[in-house]
Amino acid sequence: xxxxxxxxLLASSLSGCGYNTLQTQDESVKASWSEVxxxxxxxxxxxxxxxxxxxxxxxxxxxxxxxxxxxxxxxGSIQMTPELAKDEAALKKFQEAQSGMxxxxxxxxxxxxxxPDLKANDNFRDLSAQLEGTENRIAVARNRYIQEVxxxxxxxRSFPSNLTAKMFGMDVKxxxxxxxxxxxxxxxKVDFGKK
Length: 195
Description:
Elements: H1 2-14, H2 19-57, H3 62-77, H4 88-113, H5 116-120, H6 122-157, H7 161-167, H8 181-184
């Protein structure tokens, strides 16, 4: 009888500990991180086809094409795993590589503007539309991940679930950081002067 009372007392004290909530939120963070990786992989898969099409029209733009190829290689060299999201330094390195890829693709699109025949190419237009859609998907996936991490981190830091989190080694997770945060606080300069 004492054993039964002890088990009942233990079970009732654990009901508000937050363990199940922490587990559910941790799984939500992992799932949303997987979606972020999925969208980045989709973008990386589009790049070689886009580079090949541009190369056919703008072969003398080797510097830009090489930049895109190198950015893709850098992104590909980073092991994209759920564990990556737990390490703040690795997450920062991952973000820098993805930022480099986005910058290189932006330069590639500027080059494409110089070639009307390239812009008229059906394959280029299709890949450009897919790339634009993928960039939007990346933004949505990152936002979902940020929200899931926020929810999890609040639970990890709130009482009494913070005691359970500490007991089971569940720490606050790092989140995406804004690049050039200082630059964002400066208003852009607009010049409507004549060309």
